[in-house]
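Hey, does this match?
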Amino acid sequence: MEAARDPEFLPHDGPLREDVRRLGALVGQMLAEQGGQAFFERVEAVRTAAIHRRRSGAAVDALASTLTGLGANDAEALARAFATYFQAVNTAERVHRIRRRRDYQREGGAPQPESLAAVVGQLKDEGVTAEELATLLGKLDVEPVFTAHPTEAVRRSLLEKEQEIVRALVDEFDPTRTPQELRDDDARILMALSAGWQTAEASPVRPSVSDEFDHVGFYLARPIYRVLPALYESLEQAIAEHYGDGVTVPRVLRFATWVGGDMDGNPNVNADTIAATLAAQRSLVLERYVEGVNELGRLLSQTDDRVSLDDKLGRRLDDYREQMPAAAARIRPRHADMPYRAFLTFVAERLEATLHEGDDAYASAAEFIDDIALVEKSLLNHGGRHAGAYAVGRLLWRARTFGFHLARLDVRQDARVHDEALAALLDDAGWADREADARVKVLRPFAAGERSFVAGDDHDAAGMLRNVFATLADSRKRYGTEATGLYIISMAETAADVLAVLALARRGGLLEDGRVPLDVAPLFETIDDLKGGPATLQALLDDPVYRAHLKARGDRQWVMLGYSDSGKDGGTVASKWSLQRAQVELLEVAAKAGIRVAFFHGRGGSASRGGSRITPALMASPRGSVGGVLRVTEQGEVIHRKYGIRALAVRNLEQTLGAVMRASLRPRVAEVRESGWKDVMVRLSDESRKAYRAFVDMEGFVDYFRGATPIDVIERMTLGSRPARRRSMKGVEDLRAIPWVFSWTQCRAVLTGWYGLGSALETVAKECGEDTLGRMAKEWAFFATMLDDVEMVLAKADIDIAEAFSELAGPLHERFFPKVREEFERTVSWVLRLKGASELLQREPRLATSIRLRNPYVDPMSLLQVDLLKRWRATGGKDDALLNALVACVNGVSQGLQNTG
């Protein structure tokens, strides 16, 4: 993979160029060693042909002909070879991001854009006072939510090998490394590549919920746990530099997860997985604390003849000696004069007791935090600022963030399951078909605790939900109130759907002080749900029973916004606009009622599912919609890309925190022309949705989709514990949003991210004028950000390769694909016109370079997939060897395109 044959790099990216060249050479060496010289030469021949095709603009036929008819094993090996090249490019780019961050820090000039240093400095320049900043920090609450929606399922062993390659490359930032050390670095990389080649990318067994937790837990308890204090240190340093020492930084970040609690459409998730996940999370974080406390014990070797101890810490140490004589006896006599080490021995003992539910267990994380805080305070009071207080402070930030629960566990269930249970409990077979007002009237006394259900114990849904709520009640007692998060209702349409949860929770015994201690969040996930959301919220706030519940919850209503299903329902433009308008209208309803509304953004990794750069996305959001709070899902490959490498985890968390601070304290300035632009946007949304629905509602569309995309392969892959379909597929509504987007991305059309926009722009330009659209593109943050997202998707698409996939649909190809190509070309043309550009990503050279670097290597994978798909389907999907090769292609394309679902 010599750089001379690759797309051009930016002038200041010389080190990236060298890393790509070096890793490419090592990948080539590994392939020759593992597969033989002939195999390596075949890979090189295909790669060279792919580069030629890109540079010459040639048709795909010549490249495709080199990939036709390969044996299944040869095809799988070829796919894995290109996937390994992608991994090398991805790793090189991630390391280069670390390098650029270090360059900013070393040069000491302007801070890196979007860093906390840059954001806090900008806020100070814009007139934010220390009082304003302190007020925001007091309510700042950023909560990434890790979900079990994998579009890649990489084994932990492979993640660890990738981290070894990263460490080897980062070690070479040191210019003093010797030639032997450099050779050793190459050996480390080659070993990781070779061992990775000999390891299957994923298990052939579909992962269990427990496996999914292990995957998410790896990121939470390893890279994120390690880097968390660095985030707070960056924030404290930035504030001190611009505001002095008068502003105290509280906890501003926490984490949540859906793994083990997302029951929607997943029969494998239930009360047992909720209990098991919470227990596993507790064990994982307690084990990390035990490690940390033992490390501190070794560090804090101060002896009592050299330092004094705070009286309060001394008294607690005496108490512990008396309360835990067995632990006291284990302290070595030669350590008896080391008070901090002795105290931390008792703290470790209490943590172990907590882990194993022993007699000396901590009753809560607050008790543990208090012990560690005593150590920090004593050190600071007695000359220990630079003799250990820094390390103790780092453990404190971890404990304040992760508690004894690691991450809050959300629970989600479909409103239709609640209705099924209620139909049994009320002995009313027609319950779900009744008008919402009638259901509210029936549910109100049950939700208020004035009536109790007496029937239906043996019904599946009713019994399952009773166990779920009983488990939540028990878990809050065992693990603390911070252990459980929101209860999310999928397909929520009316106030009755929310009252149903309160009624069922009471039946399950989830009560504290006579009230249900749950934040219930309706999920508005279709275009119609988003339009009806404000009316649903108004109906809830008008209901006296729910209003009393909300008051007990601090008068804050959570609403989850579904980016994925709204995009699948109405296309990307209608989805983005419906989400924008829903937030505005929900905020208005909340303000009139005197309550706060907080938004939980159900975004995916791809632009088709709401994925976007965090800073422009938040700055383009409605004014007042952030308010210091950001709760957003992190899914699939996004988790790995953002948090897999420690230095990049810090960078991503800084960007997120900084974006929330900016959008909260200095949101975008009101634009007087925006009211008129909103009318234009309504027309664009309507026309785009009309064009999109006209396409997906065509007769035979489902058959075309199943023929022109590898959805049948994706359904067979062992990516997650959740089924790909909700029910037998009669329309796009029956397919989950993730495999829907994943499939269109795999076939390189990626139409979920652009279809309908070109037609809408063409129509509306005739009505409102192209000049108006041009001004919107330049001066309205919402519209500009939407175009940026679409432009990125268009740049990743390849309409010629999409045509090769489409031809697999047989006669349906001629009916459907001309519409795809025509709309693609129309959309590209309009995006370029509105941006005043001659080519896609003209103003995003780094992203353009990144895509150009990958595209020649993705192309062979895609064309090989076309040939394999045709042959596999000819066997009726029964040839497992061909399926394995197809799975290797899907995995490789995912790694090449990076954000797939």
